[in-house]
Design a protein that fits this description.
Length: 518
């Protein structure tokens, strides 16, 4: 029984109680007068409940922004008042709409909650009491990928065969690519939140447990610690997997920071400026143990402002699935610096997310002989500046981000036998993504391109990608979709089995994917 029905029953009982008390002595006139007053009270109660339900529907619409294609909850139908001779009217129960998707970051529109180091869906609440709560959610992605042509050769910026052999290791495989299990809630105090995510990438045999503990003091200040996205680029701020494709463009993959252990503060000012500032062990901790970390810490931060609507979709999602009737805008800037990234903390392998620093020819910065024969870097200073802006309106989406990265203050290993060929490397790049819904909340078509301009003075050449794709949201929600994508790539400097690209790839990437998030 709905809240409206229960309220009417209690109201009726309270109103009838005096009649029962006087029942034996009541005259027909007094009974009729009391019934009349009962009808008046019931009509007043119905009006109040209708007003309340209408206000709830308005608030849900504002918070959810029409998210997931669901309408705000309709007011429950109220039985007609019963007069002295009226037959009881049948109760009509309104169909309860599923709960609206949370606005970006939860209850505070536009705010990214620090207790979700990786994006989480609604999940299912297992239990809640005064002592705490527990919700469980999950994410799964199945991917078929084809990289063409199958046989390719590439050289590095010095004209040497790439990685010694010169052969580009192209892919043709089908995988339950990655899966996540999310546990989250509060403990003892609703302002004290916890989150744990079991994160697996089957394509690389990677299994990680990430999470955080955080306390919200005010809307302006939340303090948290654990593992989180280093805020050097916009895609590290919790929007995954709500992107156009399921992974990043070439430039975003090349320039981005990673996930690291540290402490961070987040919040939203009264002027609507959101922030996240983080102090971490390095720019990417995945695959690195504590013994391998240096004593030097990394520092990063981001600001973003959403001046028109105060939100940008759930978790800062890409694409205008919500079909904004008013222009939604977001402007942001991010900066990350690690004064001493270390070769030990950036292993010489190609496993994704164990290293984030690659050169314009896809070699790892700390790889032996990466900058020249006999030249191996032990430590380096890393700096990244990124500026982004985005727009959403009536199913149309446009977003861009520009990058400027500096690598300098190189120190050689003891095994180096040649001098440094360059004192610094400065790379630039950008991406542009756009999409629209020819069928609202069902079919999305999109296109993107990105360009990378590595330091030509150091011998590196430009690279780029162009992609077109389609998303089919078969259930009418953001949380389930099929994706088909075609990417044309020129000399990929990014290399990650986690994403779409292999180092040195010059050709095409075709993917067919299905994902579910709850």
């Amino acid at each position: 029984m709905g809240k409206t029905g229960k309220a009417l029953i209690w109201g009726g009982m309270l109103a009838v109680a005096p009649l029962l008390a006087d029942g034996q002595e009541a005259t027909p006139a007094s009974v009729e007068e009391r019934l009349r007053r009962l009808e008046e009270r019931q009509e007043l109660l119905e009006r109040q409940l209708r007003d309340k339900d209408a206000r709830i529907a308005e608030l849900e619409a504002e918070l959810g922004g029409g998210s997931d294609g669901q309408q705000a909850r309709a007011p429950a139908a109220v039985p007609a008042p019963a007069g002295p001779a009226a037959a009881p009217a049948p109760a009509v129960v309104a169909e309860a709409a599923p709960p609206a998707a949370p606005a970006e970051g939860g209850a505070r529109s536009g705010f990214i909650n620090p207790d979700t180091p990786l994006a989480a869906g609604r999940g299912f609440e297992v239990g809640r009491s005064d002592l705490g709560s527990l919700s469980i959610g999950a994410y799964a992605l199945v991917r078929a990928i084809e990289q063409l042509p199958a046989s390719q050769d590439a050289t590095d910026h010095l004209g040497r065969p790439l990685n010694g052999s010169g052969e580009v290791d192209t892919r043709q495989d089908i995988n339950l690519h990655r899966a996540m299990i999310n546990l989250r809630g509060f403990m003892f105090d609703e302002n004290f939140n916890y989150a744990l995510t079991v994160w697996t990438v089957n394509a690389t045999e990677t299994v990680r447990i990430v999470g955080s503990l955080g306390y919200t003091f005010t809307d302006f200040f939340t303090l948290a610690a654990g593992i989180s996205g280093t805020p050097g680029t916009r895609s590290l701020l919790g929007s995954h997997p709500f992107w156009l494709g399921h992974d990043r463009t070439l430039a975003d993959e090349y320039f981005r920071t990673g996930f690291s252990s540290g402490v961070w503060a987040t919040g939203q000012s009264k002027r609507g400026i959101n922030y996240k500032f983080m102090v971490s062990n390095n720019i990417s901790t995945l695959g690195v143990n504590a013994v391998e970390d240096t004593r030097d810490l990394a520092y990063s931060g981001t600001l973003w402002w959403m001046p028109t609507t105060g939100e940008y979709g759930p978790q800062g999602a890409y694409g205008d699935f919500e079909y904004h009737e008013e222009l939604a805008t977001r402007f942001g800037i991010s900066y990350a610096r690690s004064p001493r990234e270390d070769r030990t903390a950036q292993p010489d392998d190609n496993s994704p997310d164990s290293t984030q620093i690659r050169l314009g020819d896809s070699l790892l910065l700390f790889q032996r002989d990466a900058l020249g024969d006999g030249v191996t870097i032990q430590t380096a200073n890393f700096e990244l500046l990124a500026v982004d802006l985005g727009f959403k309106y009536r199913g149309f989406f446009l977003q861009t981000e520009a990058y400027y990265r500096t690598l300098n203050d190189f120190r050689l290993t003891s095994i180096s036998t040649a001098p440094l060929p360059t004192r610094s490397i400065r790379d630039k790049g950008f991406y542009v993504q756009s999409g629209f819904f020819p069928v609202p909340k069902r079919l999305e078509l999109y296109a993107s391109t990105s360009r990378i301009y590595p330091d030509g003075d150091a011998g590196f050449s430009d690279s780029r990608d162009v992609a077109v794709g389609a998303n089919w949201y078969w259930s009418g929600t953001r949380y389930q979709r099929m994706n088909l994508q075609y990417i044309d790539v020129k000399d990929s400097p990014a290399s990650s089995t986690f994403g779409y690209f292999t180092g040195g790839l010059d050709g095409q990437v075709i993917t067919l994917e299905a994902s579910v998030l709850f």
